[in-house]
Structure formats: structure tokens, C-alpha cells
Specification:
2 domains; five-stranded mixed beta sheet; Nucleotidyltransferase, domain 5; alpha/beta; binds zinc ion
Amino acid sequence: MSLSRLAIAMDIGGTNLRYAVVNESATILAKGVTETFEFEGKEAVIRRILDAARTALSWADTKPVAIGLALASPVDPVTGVMQMPPNILSLQGYSPIKDLQDNLDIPVVAANDATLAALGEYKYGIKKSVSNMVYLTISTGVGGGQIIDGKIYNGSRGFAAEWGHLTLDFEGHQCNCGSNGCFETYCSGPAIVRIAEEMLAETALKSSLNKHLGKLTPQKLASAARDGDQFSIEVWDKIGRYLGVALSVILNTLDPDVIVIGGGVSSALDLMMKTAESEVKTRALYPYTNNIPVTTAKLGDDSGLIGAAALAFDNIN
Ligand SMILES: [Zn+2]
């Protein structure tokens, strides 16, 4: 296996379209970003994807083996068709694979972006010899992916590992998916802010955050907690309990070697883990009572691009 092989990786989201040339050591040799401009409609978005792919191909000094696409959508594992992409609805029912292959004469493979972030972390991030891994990304929403016996698991329809929609409270907060009480409605960035504002309106505690009411962010809550603000510590304790319940369900159903947590909110994981661990000890089965296999992601914002490149190399071997 030569280390000189290259792949084009593209991470196509509702806000940004990121593209890169990546080698087999997962080094990003060149990368660019443009806005997706989803509001301009399907044809304009497709044109932008083709332009970005052409630009990335022009950066490569040897012909890349394939293009790997990380799509912000459940993706049919056979056809690459995007199914109800929540933030790129104009591409509903569309697979970018054929247009890219026909126009650029290069093999193209695609999968869900969080699934590919899982693959990227599995192959290049955690650097542990494991077979079964769960990846959770906690940011504006909660998504994820999973590796079973060393391979990504998409499910039959591309909807596997949607951890954000685990029901934590069947009478709970309304979720965008149509259900209520989903994990995402308690642990995503916007959910954390909502819960903090509800708690701040009710608490008798003095908090440095009172002056930020209406303008709270997870970052402000994390930095106040690290400065010893008791109210903020209680917010993270509460969010940690929800996280712990979700982790317990995942551990009890999949028995993974490790759960890797990424996304913007993962930078506050240490603030949540005390109560999360206590929930896991109460709720998860015997193997996890003294050993909670949770770690933070290592690849940051590039995990989707690196996973897309890994998929491209895997499918060409
Ligand atoms: Zn939901």
C-alpha cells in the first residue's frame, strides 16, 4: 500500500460545503470551504458541489482514487440517496454520486456525515485497537455513528445510530423529529441554553450569568462553571444526568469497546461526567459499573473529511 494515494473528501452540510485533498495517512494536504447557500435551491447547490469537487481535483498532484462524500443526511447505503436531510431539504431524494461520477470521471462513495466522523475517529483518532465503537456528536443537534466488527454500520435504510432521538422522557420536550423527550432536546447546545434559562429564572442562587439571561451560550456556561459559579455547575450536573441515561441505554444495547464523544459541546464533557458516571453506575449493567468506556473525539472539525477520505480508500482497495 503506497502512502502516495490521494482521495478527495467533501463534507456537505446545510451551512458549509468543505472539500479537501487527503492522503492515506489522513493528512489533509489542501482544503477549502464555501457556503452551501441551500436557499438558492437544488440546481445551484449541485452546481456548487461540482465546482468544489473540480477545485479539489485541481489541487491534487496525482489522480485521486475516489471522492468520498460526508452528507448531512441519512443516506441510503446502496444508492447514496439523501433521505429527509433536515438542513438541506432541497436535496431530498437526491444522490450526488451519479452527477459527480458522470462529470468528473472518478469513483464516488457517500455516507452520513456523523457515520463518517465515526469512521475517521475509529481509524485515525482514538488510536486504540478496538472492534466496536460508538460515536456521539453533540453540537447544534445530537448525531452519531457506529462501528461494528471494524466496519461502519448504516442500518438497512441509512438511519442507524441516530442517538439524538433516543427517548429519555416520553412526556418530555417537543423534538424537531416529531417525537418528544428525545436526548437531543436535553443535551444539544440549544437545549442546554433552554434548560439553563429555565433554571436561572427559578433559582435563588446568585450567578454571574444573570446579566446574560437571553444571551446564554454553552461556552459562557462552561467558563462560568470552571470559574466556580455554583449555578452553572448545577446546570452541567443536570445535563450530565441526561447524558448518563443516554450512555446507559447505548452501553446496555450495544456493549461497545468505547463511546467517543465529539462536537462542540464535548469540550464541556469533563463538567458533565461526574453526574453522567453516577447515572451509568445506577442504570448500566455489570460490566460498566466500575469502568465507563467514554473518551473525547480527537479529530475536531476535520473528522467528517477524514472519514470521507477513509471511506474512499476503503472502497477502492
Ligand atoms: Zn427527536
